[in-house]
Amino acid sequence: MRTIDASAAESSGLASPRESASGAAAVQKALAILEIVADREGATAREIATALGIPLSTAYRLAQNLANADYLVHLKEERRYELGFKLHQLGLSLHRQVGVAPEVRAQVGALHRQADAAAYFAQYRGSEVVVAYVVDSPGRPRVTPLDFGFHEAAHATAFGKIMLAGMTPEQREQYLVGHPPNRLTPHTMTDREDLEAHLAMVGRAGIAWEHEEFMPRLVCVAAGVRGPNGVIVGSVALSGSVQEMRRKAAASEAAVRHAAAQLSRYFRSGSAAAASGSP
């Protein structure tokens, strides 16, 4: 096998392993800085350095590079950094890429009004199960953090269970290896055999319930949305308190089944592919 020494790599434009590792580490630190500034709603270079365990000069240099590229804003009088406008542009782009068709938004809105509960639409984005659209109201707010872009805890959410139940055993195994079913509440199902048995039941029923598995005092119900080949491509869900969902369990289940059926007709018609520009 032919090897490339450092000088050859430099002359050919290829990075050496050491340079590649150094570059990857810098990228990881830069992303970590963005997360710190976002979580704290602003941070000084010293706070960044302390949080990451890096020299103050390194924290300042990386933060300043991010500011020069408009990913951060340096508020000099306050000696701190806040998120920059470039991230807003990226967020808008993400919404456009993950965004759902007007027909889907209308159906989720109708589900919210009919069931008088926060309503959700989840779909695949690559191998992830992602919340793509939410409709709520001041009286029936969405569950935090079940907002646009949420892609965790599929094993503990009703919309995630529907999607998991719709996977082949091989797909589900691969997904759960990368997303271990961690315990979130005392009711979270973490044993793989128990989870598989539960998902088999969900698949037969075509409906998924989640009783305080994701968050205490929260209950969710979901139904699957199917594409042209009958495979589940998304799910619609409702959330509410234990008392509310217990009181209107039958109505909530009927509402998500109806919304899923309506959306399945839309996806099977090929209109969804046309709207997204898919061939």
Main features:
279 residues; alpha+beta; Arc Repressor Mutant, subunit A; Beta-Lactamase; 2 domains; five-stranded antiparallel β-sheet; two-stranded antiparallel ribbon; 12 helices; disordered N terminus; disordered C terminus
Please outline the helices and strands.
Blueprint: H1 6-12, H2 17-40, H3 45-52, H4 56-68, E1 72-75, E2 80-83, H5 85-98, H6 102-115, E3 118-125, E4 128-135, H7 158-165, H8 169-178, H9 192-205, E5 207-211, E6 218-226, E7 232-241, H10 242-247, H11 249-268, H12 271-276
Antiparallel strand pairs: 1-2, 3-4, 3-7, 5-6, 6-7
Helix pairs in contact: 2-4, 3-4, 6-11, 7-9
Summarize the biggest pleated sheet: 5 strands, antiparallel
Question: What's the shape?
Answer: elongated
Which structural category do the helix and sheet elements fall into? alpha+beta
What percentage of the residues does DSSP assign to strands (E)? 15-25%
Q: Which architecture name of the largest domain does CATH use?
A: 2-Layer Sandwich
